[in-house]
Design goal:
mainly alpha, globular, 91 residues, 2 strands, Arc Repressor Mutant, subunit A, 4 helices, 48% helix, two-stranded antiparallel sheet
Length: 91
């Protein structure tokens, strides 16, 4: 499940909430959230830093933690992308 979530976050066409990602993967949002926290502990995900002023032109504005206090915008780290490439090359 770790790799599925990481892959979906790295290759998804749009920003996905844990709920949307859970529907895509056929699991519960709680499981997705737990997996995302684990991926962050491994250094494969990080919470996006808040952007400078000028959110009007940002494509991720609707999912950004700067505009909603309970949501976090996760980004796949370079370490996460390398790990995902290694995992996919083994398949």
């Amino acid at each position: 499940m770790l790799w599925k979530v990481l892959h979906e976050l790295a290759t998804g066409r749009s920003t996905q909430s844990p709920e949307a990602l859970a529907r895509t993967l056929g699991v519960t949002p709680a499981l997705v959230q737990q997996v995302m926290e684990e991926l962050a502990r491994y250094g494969y995900l990080s919470v996006a830093e808040q952007c400078a002023p000028g959110c009007d032109s940002c494509a991720l504005q609707s999912a950004c933690s700067a505009t909603t206090s309970t949501a976090r915008l996760w980004v796949v780290t370079p370490k996460g992308r390398r790990a995902l490439r290694r995992q996919e090359s083994m398949l």
